[in-house]
């Protein structure tokens, strides 16, 4: 019973983390039809920026409670700088190319960013665990969890809710949905599609960086941390259906639970199980669990 | 031998075989590994001509390498040629099964599903103590066609790699010119039209997928023989990404392009890695962006254009 509880709690925590990262990936794909391989590098950039900012703040004697604000600030700065830079500087010139070619463009970007991180931060690892332990523990029956994990879960729910509200209730959100459905008609109706792309990619970059910044206190930040994340986020997004917001949530929960169950009951199958689920979903529902029926275009 | 491609490949093979004994050890292994990876990229060329990009050729690369290793380790059959043949057989068998599923996928879904399969193999191998888990294990071929190999057998393995790569490239060239092979570009252009003509798109895609897997498996086998060590990284998505990278770099204009491109790539990488270990990926990435933007048909297209002009 205790183990079942542990599986459920670990699963939810892991799912929240996955959801934040996968959300950016699926949003960018939904609007721009770009499967962004560099998403993991943006995640790593967020983690590095957060780790060094918080590390600097703490060593300067700043209040540890302010470090939570700094995590968010670091992510915002990374996203708001890299997002527009990449979209305007690179992707803008390549729209209309084949989806596969665009994957390769982001693959090249991934290679560049990985080395950029090594140039900026070196190859040693960064550890800032203060924000992780600061909030103390909370217990579920016999199990103790750091409260920081709850922050992660709340962050995921808030971000998911805000995104849903933004897409369905605001004017620009609805315009974005229109662009997702039909780019040409939206442009003809006077929506500035170019600007929508810029905004979308920036939001996606911010989300990746937020995922990284929130993870930074829980792990040691090392080169190559983005490489693993990107395939996990792929699995989530593909399972849920590329470009689907509820799909990302369900995919994250599914992958989170499967992994957590594997870790507790069959540790050998941890990685295997995630990709087995991904392959299985692709086989049964090639377009993912939450994909809308595709409109046939002539 | 009137075909230019076949003739040039034969000349290149003769050159490599003749120059081999005089090459230093580092050049021998660099060339062998390039040819191994070139075989994988050759398979990707066929898939790309069919309009498919696999982000999971690492699956067969790794499978081929492990097949060779397992044969030598567990059955004591450590003949280099036997190991290579076994690599190819195992890869084709697995591809025939997975191909049943993959043959109906296109575009991004084909890429993703093949990526998932290769990551499954990776996830399995890193947790398999029998195969050395994440460390992998050593592979040594002691004989080649019954003849004892001295030491690591540098030149012998290079000769084997060069002969297999050139034979594979020639066979693929012939195949692409045949009726069945010329379905590939037709499928990329318009599947419906191919079906109307009475050909089976599914069958052709399945066949091409299996051929690509065969080549990737052989490439893995060659790499295992040359490096002498294999590990699960061979199935990781970055390895597969690198193959696609080289395929784009070289272009799909000719079957010689993947081999030449692979040699160029490995050579450049070893230099870049030596002189700037922390920025070589950045150089590669930038080069790739430039090629995608300005030479969408790869480096080979420059060569082809010049030949046409002359």
Low-confidence stretches of chain B: none
What is the element string of chain A, with H for helices and E for strands?
HHHHHEEHHHHHHH
Class from secondary-structure proportions of chain A: mainly alpha
Radius of gyration of chain A: 19 Å
The domain count of chain B comes to 1
Q: Helix fraction of chain B?
A: over 70%
The spatial strand order of the largest sheet of chain B comes to: 1-4
- Number of helix segments of chain A? 12
Shape of chain A: globular
Query: What is the rounded Rg of chain B?
Result: 19 Å
Q: Which regions of chain A contain 5 or more consecutive residues with pLDDT less than 50?
A: none
CA-to-CA gap between the ends of chain A? 55 Å
Structural class of chain B: mainly alpha
Chain pair with largest interface: A-B, 46 and 39 residues
Note the total helix count of chain B.
13
Shape, principal axes of CA atoms of chain B: globular
The major sheet of chain B is characterized as:
2 strands, antiparallel
Number of strands of chain A: 2
- Major β-sheet profile of chain A: 2 strands, antiparallel
End-to-end gap of chain B: 22 Å
Q: Characteristics of this structure?
A:
A: ABC transporter involved in vitamin B12 uptake, BtuC; two-stranded antiparallel ribbon; B: 310 residues; mainly alpha; 4 strands; 72% helix; 3% strand; globular
Overview of this structure, please?
The complex is a heterodimer of chains A (298) and B (310). With 298 residues, chain A is mainly alpha-helical. Chain A has a single domain, classed as ABC transporter involved in vitamin B12 uptake, BtuC. Helix content of chain A is 73%, strand content 3%. Chain A has 12 helices and 2 strands. Chain A has a two-stranded antiparallel ribbon. Chain B is an all-alpha fold and 310 residues long. Chain B has one domain (4-235). Chain B has 13 helices and 4 strands. Chain B has helices at 4-19, 25-49, 58-75, 80-102, 107-125, 154-177, 183-189, 191-196, 201-227, 237-250, 256-275, 280-294, 300-309, and strands at 137-138, 143-144, 147-148, 229-230. Chain B is globular and about 55 Å long. The model of chain B has no long low-confidence stretch (mean pLDDT 89). Chain A binds chain B through residues 35, 37, 90, 93-94, 97, 99-101, 103-105, 107-112, 114-116, 118-119, 123, 227, 231, 234-235, 238, 242, 267-276, 278-279, 282-283, 286-287, and chain B through 53, 55, 101, 105, 107-109, 111-113, 115-117, 119-120, 122-124, 126-127, 237-238, 241, 244-245, 248, 278-282, 284-286, 288-289, 292-293, 296.
């Amino acid at each position: 019973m205790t183990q079942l509880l542990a599986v459920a709690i670990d699963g939810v925590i892991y799912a929240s983390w996955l959801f934040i990262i996968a959300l950016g990936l699926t949003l960018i794909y939904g609007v721009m039809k770009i499967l962004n391989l560099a998403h993991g590098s943006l995640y790593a950039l967020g983690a590095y920026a957060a780790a060094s900012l918080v590390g600097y703040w703490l060593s300067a004697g700043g209040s540890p409670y302010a470090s939570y604000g700094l995590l968010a600030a670091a992510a915002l700065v990374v996203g708001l700088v890299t997002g527009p830079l990449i979209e305007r500087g690179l992707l803008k010139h390549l729209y209309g190319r084949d989806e596969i070619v665009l994957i390769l463009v982001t693959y090249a970007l991934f290679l560049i960013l990985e080395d950029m991180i090594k140039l900026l931060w070196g190859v040693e690892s960064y550890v800032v665990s203060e924000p992780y332990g600061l909030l103390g523990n909370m217990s579920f029956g016999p199990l103790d969890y750091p409260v920081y994990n709850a922050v992660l879960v709340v962050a995921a729910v808030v971000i998911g809710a805000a995104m849903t509200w933004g897409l369905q209730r605001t004017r620009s959100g609805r315009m974005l949905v229109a662009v997702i459905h039909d780019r040409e008609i939206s442009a003809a109706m006077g929506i500035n599609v170019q600007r929508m792309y810029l905004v979308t990619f920036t939001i996606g970059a911010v989300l990746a960086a937020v995922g990284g910044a929130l993870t930074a206190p829980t792990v040691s930040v090392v080169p190559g941390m983005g490489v693993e994340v990107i395939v996990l986020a792929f699995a989530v997004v593909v399972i849920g259906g590329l470009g689907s917001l509820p799909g990302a949530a369900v995919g994250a929960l599914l992958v989170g639970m499967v992994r957590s169950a594997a870790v507790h009951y069959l540790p050998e199958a941890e990685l295997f199980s995630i990709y087995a689920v991904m392959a299985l979903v692709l086989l049964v529902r090639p377009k993912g669990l939450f994909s809308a029926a595709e409109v046939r275009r002539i | 031998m009137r075909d230019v491609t076949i003739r040039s490949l034969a000349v290149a093979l003769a050159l490599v075989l003749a120059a081999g004994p005089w090459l230093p050890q580092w050049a021998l292994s660099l060339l062998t590994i390039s040819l191994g990876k070139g075989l994988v990229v050759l398979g990707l060329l066929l898939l790309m001509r069919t309009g498919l990009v696999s982000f999971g050729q690492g699956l067969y690369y790794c499978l081929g390498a492990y097949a060779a290793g397992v044969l030598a380790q567990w059955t004591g059959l450590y003949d280099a040629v036997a190991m290579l043949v076994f690599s190819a057989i195992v890869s084709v068998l697995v591809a025939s099964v997975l191909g049943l599923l993959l043959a109906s996928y296109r575009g991004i879904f084909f890429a993703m599903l093949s990526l998932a399969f290769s990551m499954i193999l990776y996830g399995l191998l890193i947790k398999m103590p029998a195969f050395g888990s994440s460390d992998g294990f050593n592979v040594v071929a002691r004989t080649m066609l019954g003849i004892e190999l001295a030491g690591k057998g540098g030149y012998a393995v290079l000769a084997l790699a060069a002969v297999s790569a050139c034979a594979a490239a020639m066979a693929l060239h012939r195949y692409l010119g045949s009726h069945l092979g010329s379905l590939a570009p037709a499928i990329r252009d318009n599947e419906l039209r191919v079906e109307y003509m009475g050909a089976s798109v599914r069958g052709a895609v399945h066949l091409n997928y299996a051929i690509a897997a065969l080549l990737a498996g052989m490439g893995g086998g060659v790499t295992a023989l040359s490096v002498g060590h294999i590990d699960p990284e061979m199935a990781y998505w970055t390895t597969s990404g690198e193959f696609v990278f080289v395929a784009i770099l070289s272009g799909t204009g000719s079957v010689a392009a993947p081999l030449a491109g692979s040699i160029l790539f490995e050579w450049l990488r070893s230099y870049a890695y030596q002189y700037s270990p922390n920025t070589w990926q950045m150089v590669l990435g930038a080069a790739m962006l430039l090629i995608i933007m300005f030479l969408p048909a790869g480096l080979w297209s420059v060569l082809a254009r010049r030949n046409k002009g002359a």
